[in-house]
Amino acid sequence: MEQAATAELSYPTELVGNPSGLRADILSPTETVAQSISTIAPTATPAMTVPLVFALAGNGTWLSYVLALGAVMLIAFCISRFARYTSSCGSLYTYATSSLPPFASGVAGWALLLAYAATGASVAGGFITYANVLLLQVTGREASTVVLALGCVAAATWIAYRDVQVSTRLMLWVEALSVLTIVSILLLVVWKIGLHVDQAQMGLVGVKPSSVRLGVVLAIFSFVGFESASSLGAEARNPLRTIPRAVIQSAFFPGIFFVICAYLETFGMARAHENLGVSAAPFHVLANLVGVKPLGVVVDIGALVSMFACVLACITAAARVLLRMAQNGIAHRTLGRTHQRNATPHLAVLVIGFATLLPVAILSARGVSALDIYGWLGSLAVYGFLTTYGLAVVALPIFLKRVATLSAGTLVLSVAAALAILLALAGTLYPVPEKPYNWLPYVYVGYLLLGAGWQAFAARGRVEA
What we know:
Layout: H1 2-9, H2 29-40, H3 44-57, H4 61-83, H5 92-97, H6 102-139, H7 145-162, H8 164-193, H9 199-202, H10 209-220, H11 239-271, H12 282-289, H13 293-327, H14 346-365, H15 370-402, H16 408-429, H17 440-464
Helix pairs in contact: 2-8, 2-11, 2-13, 3-10, 3-11, 4-10, 4-11, 4-15, 4-16, 6-7, 6-13, 6-14, 6-15, 6-17, 7-13, 7-14, 8-11, 8-12, 8-13, 10-16, 12-13, 13-14, 15-16, 15-17
């Protein structure tokens, strides 16, 4: 029954003849996983996000990441279940479209576009930070933040415009080398200090439940984009098998890495008598602690290149979502075209590249620090991802009921994932954060209203035509 339902409702138009215009069957399973891994940017989490979570959760940082991993795995199982049936360049937008009313699926599309673009812009802020750290060490001077942002986003846009296979291969090697360097330093920390239980962390000394809850919300930002391999459904080989595995692997393995990093960074920084929550470069401190100072610089280089790879992955994924939305008539139809020779969504890539660059350039020109850009835009991206995850989770049981494969276990899984998303969303709203974070929900809602207005306008134009 399940195989028959799959054949009937798995959107074979994306697999037979590939009318999306993208080059079919060119990405191996490894290259498909690389898309999600690079969007997560695992090197950025221990370098920038773990210290921010520590500032909130203290010795409960590792617990915040464990809870975040649990919530994300619930969502990942729901998304992978969807990915067994449908293969498309539209990612979660396509999943929502399969079962939800046009308005809700449109919200999913606009929310996902914002999520990817804001994540790319946020990580471009991280790129600026580490680029200037390295330039200061080498030349004694820093470069213009606007120029660095332009260079980062322009280069990523060009690669995404040119060849998705080159993009995924580059992202894979960048992340592998960066993570290897971080693991090397952490292993040296264990070797120097000795492998034993950190009583302060295991006993949650000085940790309040509210602090862990706030830490979980921020820790979730480390995972966002784990599903972006689903945007390669038109280009991956054997996508109905490859993409579900990629989604699960991209959530689980980086999550374990984040938990280990959170624990060992907290442990090592305490032994170095440094405050992880205020450290701008924790791996410099840890490298000095274990007597391998040059590796701290290597981590900085790895973080820099990893953040560039994340910008590239976000543009790659967002452009494919925009392509699908244009082909469905929600975005302007010209964005539904692909390049004749490159078989990439070239016009959508250019639009997303501009949308990624614009907020970074404006904020940098106004003197906003790169770390604030990372925090502000990253928090905005979380709203988009949580919205899209929530709609996909709600759509799953509706879709499975339609194809007569809904089980009690899947229904319980969907309900649990939806509750986890609601709790995470509540954590971003209460207690009310300080400025400008308290304004971000209004910015996000305003953006969705603009998207809904355009969708209504486009639908009216189609009816009149």
